[in-house]
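ingest -> validate -> predict -> emit
validate: passed (alphabet ok, no gaps, 45 aa)
predict: started
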Amino acid sequence: MMDDINILTVRIPREDKLRLMEYAKTHDCSASQIIRYLIRRYLFE
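emit:
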């Protein structure tokens, strides 16, 4: 399974990162889950 996973680095401004982390915290998920969701929506919808 790990052979199917690739690493992608995303650079965002610090204030956006803090906002993303706060959003994730209030929605009981991680920032990486949100980023993966947004990438999937952007690419596949």
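The mean pLDDT is 91.
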